[in-house]
Write a structure and sequence with these properties.
83% of the residues lie in helices and 0% in strands. The protein is mainly alpha-helical. The longest helix has 42 residues.
């Protein structure tokens, strides 16, 4: 038997797939938000050690990269919420017409 909802109804395959896709999307977003600034921080550290201005480039590259990652995450989240709202509004129209 598969997962069971709180009301006792079984979760269908579509809901299970959506749950798994959501978990995968969340993991990839978290991974991207951590790894990308870390890589740019390492690049900044390497360049700083070569030029001798430590930690200027390290902080700048990490700050710019982290700012970009947060902006991208917020923008994607907003677009997904707008899309979900439009789908919900469209389904309300279909129910009223039935």
């Amino acid at each position: 038997m598969g997962p069971v909802r709180a009301r006792g109804n079984h979760v269908d395959d579509r809901e299970r797939r959506e749950l798994r896709n959501g978990a995968g999307d969340a993991f990839s977003a978290a991974f991207e938000m951590v790894v990308t600034p870390a890589l740019f921080g390492l690049l900044g550290w390497f360049l700083d050690s070569r030029i001798g201005i430590f930690p200027v480039l390290t902080l700048v590259l990490v700050g710019v990269t982290l700012t970009y990652e947060v902006w991208k995450f917020v923008r994607r989240y907003g677009e997904e919420m707008d899309s979900a709202l439009e789908q919900r509004r469209a389904s309300y129209g279909r129910r009223a017409a039935s």
